[in-house]
Amino acid sequence: MFKKYSILTAVLTAFLLAAGCSANQSTTDSEKKVTLTLSAAASAQDALEEIQKNYEKEHQNITIQDNYGSSGALQKQISQGAGADLFFSAAEDKFQKLVDDGDIAKKDSTDLVGNEIVLVVPKNGDSPVTSFSNLADSEKIALGTPESVPAGAYGKESLTKLSLWDKVKDKIVYGKDVRQVLSYVETGNVDAGVVYKTDALISKKVKIIDEAKADTHSPIVYPLGIVKDTKHRKEAKEFYEYLQSDEAMKVFEKYGFTAE
Which SUPFAM superfamilies does the record cross-reference, listed alphabetically (predicted)? Predict the structure, then answer.
């Protein structure tokens, strides 16, 4: 009798241990560490870093790895198969190219925020420029390369609409992204620069002297989407939805973005 009891006890103990191991394994699997790569326009860097910090605090198994740059360069990277889970573009045409090519599904995309184009000068300098109207008085003007930098494309549109492009095109120093343009102005290497309002607001070394009216350029919209080839669809979808939340939008608005 004692022997049978011992065998039964051993069997039950083994069963409970196995169940416990299985439960622990399930917990481990559900909390596995995941790194998401977000390819994002350089102009969104400051807002995104704060948003991601908040998100990672609440999702300790998730790490957001950023890949910042011009939207055109990032779009080409994704088209060529570079690893990315989400794409946050500052240009609709660059984003639409990925949708048309099947790299991002339309159902996994949304227009997230908007922005504005402004003219800035060094804060402590003696730039001759006081507004777009006398931009031709400058010797050097910084602008993002229009073919790959959305802020540069919008800026060129505005300058053309204002009948200024032909007067200033030979004075332009091109930047690989909007942050480089901002840097040129901050260091006084140019008299003025055309950047997003969000970039101007985070710098203590420049001042905004004029804003491009909305009717001088195409609507500035930042689309967000999940890359079709993501290996972490569940986690990417959750972060995609968080970026649209009220909590995230408050941060975007704090940095000067407008809700779409």
Answer: Periplasmic binding protein-like II
Taking alpha carbons only, the member of 105, 102, 50, 114 closest to residue 225 is 105
Name the segment(s) of the chain with CATH classification 3.40.190.10: 34-112+220-257, 115-209
pLDDT in tens, 204-247: 999 999 999 999 999 999 999 999 999 999 999 999 999 999 99
Is residue 22 annotated as involved in ligand binding?
A: no
* Residue 43 marked as a ligand binder: yes
* Nearest partner of 251 among 2, 228, 89, 242, judged by Cα: 242
Find out whether 94 and 87 touch, Cβ atoms under 8 Å. no
Residue with tokens 């060094």: 122
Question: Is 26 annotated as a binding-site member?
Answer: no
Pick the CATH number of 115-209 from 3.40.190.10, 3.40.50.150, 3.50.50.60, 3.30.360.10: 3.40.190.10
CATH class of the region 34-112+220-257 = alpha beta
Question: Is 259 one of the annotated binding-site residues?
Answer: no
Residue 183, CA distances (Å) to 20, 174, 187 in order: 57, 12, 6
Q: Is residue 196 annotated as involved in ligand binding? A: yes
Reported as a single tens digit per residue, the pLDDT across 60-90 is 999 999 999 999 999 999 999 999 999 999 9
